[in-house]
Design goal:
Low-confidence stretches: none
Helix content: 25-40%
Bound molecules: adenosine-5'-triphosphate, iron/sulfur cluster, magnesium ion
Largest sheet: 8 strands, mixed
Number of helices: 11
Shape: globular
Distance between the termini: 35 Å
Number of strands: 12
Mean pLDDT: 92
Order of helices and strands: EHEEHEEHEHHHEHEHEEHHHEE
Strand order of the largest sheet: 6-7-8-3-9-10-12-11
Radius of gyration: 21 Å
Length: 325
C-alpha cells in the first residue's frame, strides 16, 4: 500500500504572551506553548488513522496543519509526495489541496444557515467551475438522506442529518483524504453509531483515507486501522488497532484504556485518567508524562524518551519492555 500522508517532525508553537507593555511592567518573558512537538507518522492510502488524546493534546492542531489551514512552526506534511508548505509549484499544491477535505465536530456551525442544502453541498465544486448537475441530490442519497432535502435549509434537520450534509459536501469534491475532527462527539449516542457506520461504508465505497480525530477510544476502536496516542503534543504510542487495544505498552495508553467504558458502546463519558494534564507552557522535564506515571523512575525526570520500535509498536517510554508486567 502506498503512503498518502507523511507527517515529519511536525511542531507547532503558539505565542501566548501577554502584550509587550504588560510583560515589561510585570517583568515577564514571552510565553510559548508547544501544541505539537516533533510528531512523526504516516497514513497509508485507503486506511483510517485514529488520533486520540485528552483535551489540549494537540489533535485539532495537527488536523488543521494537515488540511493546510495552519502552517507548522517546524517539520513537514507531505501529501501524495508533495510538501504542502514548501512546494513552490502552486499548481501542485492546489492539486493536493483539492484532494483533502475536513469534517468538524459541530455540523451546524459549519453550514451556512441562509443557503439551501443544494448550494451548500455543491459550493466547493461550483467555486472551481465544475459541473454540479444533480450532484446534491445524488450525494444526499448516498449519505442516507433524500434528494428532496436539497431544497431545504440547515435548520430543518437534526444534528445527525446535518453531519450527513457535511459529509455529502466533503464528498462533492471527490477527495482522497478526509480529516474528521471529532465528527460525532456533538451527536446523541443513538445517532453516533449510525453516522460512524455511514462513514465506514463511504470509506470502502470511495476508497477514502481518513485521519480520524477523537478523544473517545470506543469510537477510535470502531473506526481506525492504526492508532496514534498523543500526550501534551507528543506521539507517545502508535500501533495497529488490535495491538494497541490488546497490548498497550505506554503507561498513558494503559491508563486511557483502563478509564474507557468497556464494550458497552458509544458516547458513555469515560472517567478521565488520574492526575492533571500539566501546563503546556511549562511542560515537565524529561518524560512529559512522569508526574502522572505510576511506574516512573529517576531517569524519567531528566531523560526524554524517544519514540522507538518495540515489537509491532512505536512507543516513547524507557520502560516499554516491562511496562505490562
Ligand atoms: N490559536 C491558538 N493560540 C494559542 N494556543 C492554542 C491555539 N490553538 C490551540 N492552542 C493550544 O494548543 C494546545 C493544543 O490544542 P488543540 O486544540 O490542538 O487540542 P485538542 O487535542 O484538539 O483538544 P480538544 O480535545 O479539546 O479539542 C492547547 O493547549 C491549546 O490551548
Ligand atoms: S518514560 Fe518513565 S515516566 Fe515516561 S511513561 Fe515511561 S516509565 Fe513513565
Ligand atoms: Mg480539538
Amino acid at each position: 500500500m502506498s503512503i498518502l500522508v507523511a507527517v515529519r517532525n511536525l511542531t507547532r508553537i503558539f505565542d501566548v504572551s501577554k502584550p509587550w507593555l504588560n510583560r515589561l511592567i510585570e517583568r515577564r518573558d514571552k510565553a510559548l506553548l508547544t501544541a505539537v512537538n516533533k510528531v512523526d507518522f504516516e497514513i497509508e492510502e485507503r486506511t483510517v488513522y485514529g488520533l486520540v488524546g485528552e483535551s489540549g493534546s494537540g489533535k485539532s492542531t495537527i488536523g488543521k496543519i494537515i488540511v493546510g489551514l495552519l502552517p507548522p512552526s517546524a517539520g513537514a506534511v507531505e501529501i501524495e509526495g508533495v510538501d504542502l508548505y514548501r512546494e513552490e509549484d502552486d499548481a501542485k499544491v492546489d492539486a493536493v489541496r483539492s484532494d483533502i477535505q475536513m469534517i468538524f465536530q459541530d455540523p451546524y456551525a459549519s453550514l451556512n444557515p441562509r443557503w439551501k442544502v443544494a448550494s451548500i453541498i455543491t459550493e466547493p465544486v461550483a467555486a472551481r467551475g465544475g459541473d454540479t448537475t444533480d450532484m446534491a441530490e445524488k450525494l444526499l442519497e448516498q449519505v442516507g438522506l433524500s434528494a428532496r432535502d436539497a431544497g431545504k435549509y440547515p435548520h430543518e434537520f437534526s444534528g445527525g442529518q446535518r453531519q450527513r450534509i457535511c459529509i455529502a459536501r466533503a464528498l462533492a469534491s471527490e477527495p482522497r483524504l478526509i480529516v474528521c475532527d471529532e465528527p460525532t462527539s456533538a451527536l446523541d449516542v443513538s445517532v453516533q453509531a449510525q453516522v460512524l457506520n455511514l462513514m465506514s461504508d463511504l470509506q470502502d465505497e470511495f476508497g477514502l483515507t481518513y485521519l480520524f480525530i477523537s478523544h473517545d477510544l470506543t469510537v477510535v476502536r470502531h473506526m481506525a486501522d492504526k492508532v496514534g496516542v498523543l500526550y501534551l503534543g507528543q506521539l507517545v504510542e502508535e500501533a495497529d488497532r488490535d495491538t494497541l487495544f490488546d497490548a498497550p505498552l505506554h503507561p498513558y495508553t494503559q491508563m486511557l484504556l483502563e478509564a474507557a467504558p468497556k464494550l458497552d458502546g458509544f458516547g458513555r463519558e469515560a472517567t478521565p485518567p488520574e492526575g492533571e494534564i500539566p501546563d503546556p507552557i511549562n511542560p515537565p522535564s524529561g518524560c512529559v508524562f512522569h508526574p502522572r506515571c505510576p511506574i516512573a523512575v529517576e531517569r524519567c525526570k531528566v531523560d526524554p524518551p524517544e519514540l522507538r520500535g518495540v515489537g509491532k509498536t512505536r512507543v516513547a517510554c524507557h520502560l516499554a519492555e516491562t511496562s505490562r508486567d
